[in-house]
Design goal:
Number of domains: 2
Distance between the termini: 47 Å
Oligomer: single chain
Shape: globular
Structural class: alpha/beta
Number of strands: 18
Radius of gyration: 22 Å
Order of helices and strands: EHEHEHHEHEHEEHEEEEHEEEEHEEEHH
Bound molecules: flavin-adenine dinucleotide
Length: 409
């Protein structure tokens, strides 16, 4: 029997033959959009969320480091994270009295500059952030040392630090609430893989999606929430999308001599970042150089990376961390927007019922509340109402004009 004849027997048939909104991918982005739609009294349509991996074993959402920051270089990205901070810390207000009260563990982010050019980037970023209401301060090397005596700052010209609404939050709990509440309020989730899409004769809309099971489902809108597979999903509709999986490595470690205060999420000039994790444990993240696109199923660990790049960078910055021991490690995928590492959100200009929610690179978890709210508004009203996300639209991709974000991790 040829491969094309093989049906995905695990897939579950849907209750209907057509839905107003079909969401491809049910991790944090797909579930955020489904939940915001079910919340909106002006939306009375049907929602189907198709998820190929319902245990979310390979999703970026399951491999995240789950941090939030206000230190972005564009006002829009600051506003997106401000909404996230408000949403996370007021979950019962948004999701009902049973929702948990979550906190942000505000150890802060500390960007370090060892060149005048990057110091200028930090100064410019601080102006944008404080104008938007964030509490970012720029610090000289000595000021960093005064606040955190464990750092070696010999090569550091400037740092920028904010300890309000910056740090760890429990993203998996928020994801769980988005998903469970969306289902409870009528969004239908099925296990299945979208394999193909059919456009209308004029080419202006996607009429249906086809699942691996062979089932064809009509759609009013299709929302691409397929994370690192976003380009493959867009290609099904004949659309090019500059998003690819990039491997990102995480290590959790303990130190023979723990620090006497919380370690901010330190973005070292080497590109390595590290932060407080538990009370006596720390987390580091990084990638290989060069940093090629990865296969969808490549989650292999590169053990030389810790020894040759990550640990030396950490021990140089914090000499007290000369003796540290890795406890856990894993590999996840960023959905990297190779044009400008920023989100791509909203409708395609020509295939107008194909909606992007893609390319979140390393900051998608914190952007999920604003993206879910924005895409749900767009699907309901044909416009953004709370926060204008149109600068993040596909138009810039088609024109090849980056919407640059200087503060990328
Ligand atoms: C190591 C690492 C650290 C990170 N740290 C942070 C951080 O500190 N803060 C932050 O804000 N962000 C962080 N991120 C980024 C963040 O985790 C992601 O941006 C976010 O989880 C993306 O969610 P998503 O729903 O778009 O994608 P995913 O979680 O990847 O979900 C996409 C889903 O689509 C499904 N799917 C794909 N194709 C199909 C198809 N054809 N049919 C059906 N289903 C399909 C997949 O199975 C998957 O479940 C990090 C990411 C990584 C990898």
């Amino acid at each position: 029997m040829g491969a094309a004849m093989v049906k995905d027997v695990r897939a579950v048939a849907t209750k209907r033959q057509a839905y107003d909104v079909v969401i491809v991918g049910g991790a944090i982005m797909g579930s955020a959009t489904a939940w915001f739609l079910t919340q909106n009294p002006d939306f009375d349509g049907t929602i189907l969320v198709v998820e190929r991996d319902p245990g979310y074993e390979f999703a970026s959402t399951s491999h995240t480091n789950s941090c939030i920051r206000q230190q972005f270089s564009s006002t829009l990205n600051v506003r997106i994270s401000q909404f996230a901070a408000e949403f996370i810390q007021n979950l019962p207000k948004h999701m009902g009295p049973d929702a948990p009260r979550l906190k942000i563990h505000n150890f802060g982010y500390l960007y370090m500059a060892d060149t005048p050019a990057f110091a200028d980037v930090l100064r410019a970023g601080q102006k944008v952030q404080t104008a938007a209401g964030a509490g970012t301060r720029v610090l000289t090397g000595q000021q960093i040392k005064d606040a955190y005596p464990f750092y070696n700052v010999d090569d550091i010209l400037l740092g920028s630090l904010n300890t309000k609404d910056e740090g760890y939050w429990d993203g998996i709990t928020v994801f769980d609430w988005f998903r469970r509440q969306a289902r409870a309020k009528g969004a239908e989730y099925i296990r299945g893989e979208v394999m193909a899409m059919t456009r209308n004769a004029a080419g202006t809309a996607v009429e249906s999606v086809t699942l691996a099971s062979g089932q064809v489902i009509g759609c009013g809108h299709v929302v691409n929430c397929s994370g690192p597979r976003a380009a493959a999903t867009a290609r099904m509709a004949g659309i090019d999308l500059p998003v690819e999986p990039r491997k990102r490595y995480t290590w959790v470690f303990t130190a023979e001599q723990p620090l006497d205060r919380d370690l901010p999420l330190t973005i070292d000039p080497s590109g390595v970042h590290f932060r407080q994790d538990g009370k006596q444990s720390y987390m580091a993240g990084g990638h290989s150089d060069p940093d090629p696109g990865a296969a969808f199923d490549d989650f292999a660990m590169d053990h030389s990376l810790w020894e040759n790049k990550i640990w030396p960078a950490i021990a140089t910055r914090i000499p007290q961390f000369e003796a540290i021991r890795v406890q856990r490690e894993w590999v996840g995928h960023y959905a990297m927007n190779t044009l400008d590492q920023n989100a791509i959100v909203g409708p395609h200009p020509e295939v107008t019922n194909f909606i992007f929610q893609n390319g979140f690179s390393g900051h998608g978890l914190q952007q999920s509340p604003a993206m879910g709210r924005g895409v749900a508004e767009w699907l309901t009203y044909g416009e953004y109402r709370s926060l204008d996300l149109s600068p993040l639209g596909y138009g810039r991709i088609a024109r090849g004009e980056p919407y640059l974000e200087a503060a990328i991790i």
